[in-house]
Specification:
Helices cover 45% and strands 17% of the residues. The protein is of the alpha/beta class. Helix 10 runs parallel beside helix 13. It binds 5-amino-5-deoxy-1-O-phosphono-D-mannitol.
Amino acid sequence: GKGDHRHYMLKEIYEQPQVIGDTLSTFFNPTAQTISMPNFPFDLKNIPRITIVACGTSFYAGLVAKYWIEQYARIGVDIDVASEFRYREAPMQDGGLALFISQSGETADTLAALRYAKSQGQSILSIVNVPESSMERESDAVLLTHAGPEIGVASTKAFTTQLTVLACFAISLAKAKGAIDTACEARLCRAMAEVPSRTAEVLNHDEALRKIAQNVAEARDVLYLGRGSSFPIAMEGALKLKEISYIHAEGYAAGEMKHGPIALIDENVPIIVIAPMDSNFEKTASNTQESVARGGKVIFMASKEGVEKMADHCIATVTMPNVDPFVAPILYSIPVQLLAYYVAIHKGTDVDQPRNLAKSVTVE
Ligand code: M6R
């Protein structure tokens, strides 16, 4: 049941500290403070290239993983949505690993893409939330998210547990490849160990988002901006808002604004900026100022330091804990989920069963 919560979606948002912790504990050795993977029928250190395929929110989890794997493990990652990948007859490198991400393990396009990759001689790894699903059965190896059943059509805890698995996978890959030293490995593992409590901290400060949602609920269009691993979080935020509030939203790479979308900006288009304190912060901040200069109303999500730098230019700010940039995409998922939820509440839409959508898309 929903317990004390008004909707499954809200219950599932609030379950995240627990389910992220459950998922992390399947890879985390608390004594050694290290992360390790189960034995795979392929050798991590020999993987020349990775292809990631998924749909919707699971695709955005894959996109975050591309940033993690390329930066830390130094392995090239191709990524595509399953409905495109399965038909475009992509050549695939010998010995490559194909990684499929799916909450349900039953999404028709993702499953078809998996079969194609198999026919191309790839090793198949799936990340699924439903054990004994089709994808689980047809893969060479499986990593489970321990999100528990997700009832809300808008995916929340499945996403952050997918990110948790993918972060652990990226660390293990980086280590197997010899691409990170022990100090870096220790830093990443420490950052991961903090995620459950940091997630709880973010959830305890959701008041600000409820107020901001009132403003956003009036809008016809909303822009979400981010750079680097925050770019997929911007797209995920936009998808959440579209799905449950029916407000048109776009997630954009902050640096792409001046290549077109900045023309849209006026006082009626709220701009949500995802700006953790990382090596992209200054660039994202200056893109934000460019939007403000054109009348844009910015809602800025950043650490205390980032918020202090930008507060004067924004109509609202969301102060996030100051975390290692590696885990920022997991933490910044929470405010974008809550914002979409509270906007939908203001609009009175059916949060758990949005119109036209099915929980699991088993048709092509
Ligand atoms: O079960 P899957 O993870 O394969 O589902 C993929 C998408 O259909 C799913 O993430 C969808 O985009 C969600 N409704 C997003 O909230």
